[in-house]
Known about the structure:
The protein is mainly alpha-helical. Helices cover 74% and strands 0% of the residues. It has helices at 11-18, 21-31, 33-46, 48-53, 55-74, 79-100, 103-134, 150-164, 170-184, 192-216, 233-251, 254-272.
Amino acid sequence: IKVPLFPFHTWLPDAHVQAPTAGSVILAGVLLKMGTYGLLRYNLPLFPAASLHFASFMSILAVIGIIYGALVAMVQTDMKKLVAYTSVAHLGFVVLGIFALNQEAIQGAIIQMINHGLSTGALFLLVGMIYERTHTREISYYGGIAKIVPVYSFFLMVVSLSSIGLPGLNGFVGEFLILLGSFKSTVLNSWWYTVFASTGVIFAAVYLLWMYKRVVFGKVVNPKLDDLTDLNKREIFVLVPIIIFIVWIGVYPSTFLNVSEKTSDRIIEQVLEPPKAELK
């Protein structure tokens, strides 16, 4: 439920829509990862046999969540609800990486947890910033704001591309490692998981680029947008460190992968080669 893994995800979109911007950022950036952290830290080491037994089942739910979250995001008209459903898809990738049970996949899952906090948290910040100015999150309300708020449009572009998984940005590293790990997994032993999960990357490009096009490009058809103000120094100060980490992880991921290497190896060892109790 906490992850949120399909079909236990239904609480998340409403929670994000009802929460203030700060609540959504904390929920996306920290709280959702408590579920996947629990799987890595407790479930796998404490229940290795059960983890192996249910690995395929959990991976199927993860792939369904990736595709379902992406498809539902594609039909959203509310920007915040669209971003909320990206969490269902992104955390599906994390769960798939966890239960693929090899080094690439688990390292990808760990770094994807960080990536989700950065990219989705930043998206919620940007949606909240525009909402403070217009008091609406409807995509149809906007259009052509690149001419009015170019700085905001730039930040939205970078964060959207990172959420999609563009090479050179953080999202690519996590998703690539998870897909590679699931393809090589001897536990799952099927490349179909990778094929279906890969469609989630394509769908992510569809719904995020569609949102960006509708909001940023085109003609300004709403006269109320003429008075829209661009990001102030305080807002830029908040977003710049996130952008730095997005680029840092995308360009030089070894900084983070080296830290998680021993941890992932230890988790795999605990599951695949659990210590046997000695009978006296």
